[in-house]
């Protein structure tokens, strides 16, 4: 159910975990799978930072083979930073978002977790590219 | 006349036997009073010393590092191990890390290395709010590290972590889970 994914519990599985209770960071490594609501993130290494009296998750940073799957949408990149409060993931390292048959690439993609929306930014060498199939299943749905 | 003499001899013997009996009873009674009833429990074969309310403090450069207490400690000289029951260990943290209190049903304290095996319902609780539980944890004194190969569960405000195998560095409060990790972070610390 989109709209409040970022308020759901964040569940993570991995091979190993290193934590530092003083710095309030937890580093998950090895086949990391993180789930929150209907979104699933796969990556090689995930660094969770938390703060405040209730140890709220303030940032989740993914390194290596980042793949986000959420209903029809799938986003990939080499690196991603998730801000649960803003409910968005900033992807870089050849980021790509696929929705059905439509594909968008660019230098940086901001992927919105609670909305069917992504914002693609170009760079000196990477122009924004989009392949939209008119009349495709996703008529009207932006990748 | 002859019968009368026999009767007199019989009475004499009877008197001697009776007085011997009386003397024997008195001596036996006296012995009973002299030897007090032994109240000390008989120690099992391998136990050389048994202590109640055992308490040990480890300090380094005058700073208290950790304390170990137990309801009972049975020391085996040959193995140089104290076998503890109802164990409580307090690890003091430098630099405001606070205390870490660990309890367990049983323990084994190796006097030579100062390593401790904590066995049965091992629970750790930090003054900062987080804690852990495992069936068995070893304290490796040389590395100030708690270590286990068992499944461990760690809880903190807003999160629960689980894994198989743990290394917990008591002086920095960093720890590692070595396999099959799963974690849940609740937003809003619920």
Automatic annotation (TrEMBL), chain B:
This is LPS export ABC transporter periplasmic protein LptC. GO terms for cellular component: outer membrane-bounded periplasmic space; plasma membrane. GO terms for molecular function: glycolipid transfer activity; lipopolysaccharide transmembrane transporter activity. Keywords: Cell inner membrane, Cell membrane, Membrane, Transmembrane, Transmembrane helix. It holds the Pfam family LptC. InterPro entries: LipoPS_assembly_LptC-rel, LPS_export_LptC, LptC. The keyword NADP does not apply. It comes from the Bacteria. The gene is lptC.
């Amino acid at each position: 159910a989109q709209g409040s994914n970022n308020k759901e519990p964040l569940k993570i599985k991995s091979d190993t975990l290193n934590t530092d209770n003083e710095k309030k960071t937890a580093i998950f490594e090895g086949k990391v799978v993180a789930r929150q609501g209907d979104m699933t993130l796969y990556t090689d290494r995930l660094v969770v930072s938390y703060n405040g009296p209730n140890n709220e998750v303030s940032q989740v940073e993914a390194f290596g083979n980042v793949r986000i799957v959420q209903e029809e949408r799938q986003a990939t990149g080499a690196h991603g930073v998730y801000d649960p409060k803003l409910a968005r993931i900033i992807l870089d390292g050849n980021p790509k978002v696929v929705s059905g048959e439509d594909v968008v690439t660019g230098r940086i993609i901001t992927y919105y977790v609670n909305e069917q929306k992504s914002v693609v930014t170009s760079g000196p060498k990477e122009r924004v590219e989009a392949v939209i199939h008119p009349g495709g299943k996703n008529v009207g749905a932006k990748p | 006349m002859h019968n009368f003499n026999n009767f007199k001899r019989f009475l004499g013997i009877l008197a001697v036997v009776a007085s011997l009996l009386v003397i024997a009873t008195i001596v036996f009674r006296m012995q009973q009073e002299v030897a007090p009833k032994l109240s000390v429990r008989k120690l099992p074969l391998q136990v050389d010393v048994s202590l109640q309310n055992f308490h040990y403090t480890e300090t380094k450069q005058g700073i208290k590092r950790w304390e170990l207490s137990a309801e009972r400690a049975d020391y085996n000289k040959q193995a140089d191990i104290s076998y503890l029951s109802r164990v409580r260990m307090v690890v003091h943290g430098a630099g405001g890390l606070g205390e870490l209190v660990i309890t367990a049903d049983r323990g084994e304290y190796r006097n030579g290395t100062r390593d401790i095996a904590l066995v049965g319902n091992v629970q750790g609780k930090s003054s900062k709010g987080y804690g852990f539980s495992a069936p068995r944890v070893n304290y490796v004194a040389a590395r100030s590290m708690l270590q286990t190969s068992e499944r461990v569960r760690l809880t903190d405000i807003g999160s629960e972590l689980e894994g198989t195998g743990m290394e917990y560095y008591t002086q920095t409060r960093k720890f590692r889970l070595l396999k099959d990790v799963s974690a849940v972070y609740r937003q809003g610390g619920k």
